Amino acid sequence: MKRYKGVKRITLAGIFLGGIGFITYLLGFTVILGSILMAFDDTDTMISSTLVTEISESNYNNMKSHIIHINEQERIAKEKKAAEDKHITEKKNAEKRAKEKAAKEKELAEKKKNEKAEEEKRLAEAKKKEEEAAKKEAEKISKETEKNASKYISPVGLEQVTVARFVDGDTTRFYYNGEDVSFRYLLIDTPETKHPRVGKQPFGQEASDRTRELLSNAQIIEVEYDIGEKTDKYNRHLAYIYADGVMVNEVLVREGLAQVNYVYPPNTRHLERLKEAERLAKNEGIGIWSLDSPFDDPSFQEPASSSSSNNNNSSNNSNYNTNTPPASSNTTEFFQNCTELTAVYPNGVPSDHPAYQAKMDRDKDNWACER
Fold this sequence. Notes:
By secondary structure, the chain is an alpha+beta fold. It has helices at about 1-150, 205-215, 250-255, 270-285, 340-345, and strands at about 160-170, 170-175, 180-185, 190, 220-225, 235-245, 245, 260, 350, 365-370. The strands form three sheets. The chain has a five-stranded mixed β-barrel.
């Protein structure tokens, strides 16, 4: 029993010591585990702190970039809006300027239109007054001419004709006895309209227009031959022309559109009558008599001829068609016949012209293919 009690005591002591050792082991393990856990906790804290720091920096950078981006977008939007506003303003200003310009142009155009209308009205009124004055003057002269006609010799052997073609102030083509004949007005000379040498002379067109007017408005046109030769060497008939009983020769002289010229007796039946008309026109200073020297200058004067065969004609180029150019010894023109020649020179050509051929001068008057 005593042995058994001793063993029992030893066993209890061992168990006790073992328990103490196990507890010590547990305490050591606990301490070690706590240290390990504390170490892990510190590391985790450090890692967490690092992660928080990195995350904060990243968020800051992201936020900064976002803010910068937003600011940039706002800046761009503002610039775009400013540009749009500027464009809209410029467009409005341009439209305003365009409207103002259009309004000014319209106003200017309207002003010019009104001014033009006023000017045209003024000119029309002035022209009307001039025409009325001219008409009154013409009527006065016509009545005066008719009144004075009773003082002079009455027309003799009047023959009725009709106009074939107007040539100029003192030459007209009439249908006479069924033929187209050229008539040269006796005892007068009007300024030229298209002379090959002197060209257009003062009051030439007016004279031509007046002759056309008198004859165009006449119901009856008559011609009167004098007692001398009835034609000149160019086969033009020499006569006094009457429009409804009014002598056209006299009207042209009285209105200052012709002068008395080419007086070759015995064709002088109405010479005194025409000289009186010329005297009145000179005294009034009208037409050609308003010029310094309408026909006194040699360049305007047609040389006279002592031969009665040249009655009322001049020897210068005005006697043949004004389409006929001056003769030249350095050129030559050839035509097969008068048909070809008159197609170019309607009234024929004189002997000194390069197109002249003796065979075409059938009447041997030194003028080929005259009508």
